[in-house]
Specification:
mainly beta, Jelly Rolls, 4-stranded antiparallel β-sheet, about 45% strand
Length: about 140
């Protein structure tokens, strides 16, 4: 996610925002300098859609971050679960939110959330398991 500087007297648009002369702005998109009239001054901050990427082997919780690595609010996201071994139950937000999602050996589960519906995933099992979880920010 590059940082741009406007070294012109023009007021180009960057992601729908006006960039005033001599000011700095950033975008999640790499633009050709000739197209927007802005010069890249830094490749940072880097854009990263991955909010969480973890492996869980015992009962516990996965908290969905409220902000991404650029400190922007997270409202749309995908949850990807893959149970490599064993059996586990996943409850959304609270243990008493039944029915929970039962995952069995080699099962994948993917959901998309277009508003902030899930604050945490509660993972429980009475047996050994390996669960890979990824939470990804949606544009």
């Amino acid at each position: 996610m590059p940082t741009y500087r406007n070294n012109t007297s023009l007021r180009p648009l960057l992601d729908g925002r006006v960039v005033e002369p001599k000011s700095v702005a950033y975008s999640t998109i790499y633009y050709d300098e000739d197209v927007v009239g802005l010069r890249v001054i830094d490749e940072k901050p880097y854009y990263n859609p991955i909010l969480i990427s973890t492996c869980i082997t015992k009962s516990g919780e996965i908290l969905i971050p409220k902000k991404d690595n650029l400190n922007r609010p997270v409202s749309k996201y995908s949850i990807h679960l893959y149970l490599e071994k064993g059996m586990a139950k996943v409850n959304y937000n609270a243990l008493d939110n039944e029915p929970g999602l039962i995952l069995y050996n080699s099962i994948r589960w993917n959901t998309r959330h277009f508003q902030r519906e899930v604050e945490r995933l509660i993972v429980n099992s009475d047996e050994d398991f390996i669960l890979f979880a990824t939470v990804e920010r949606l544009p």
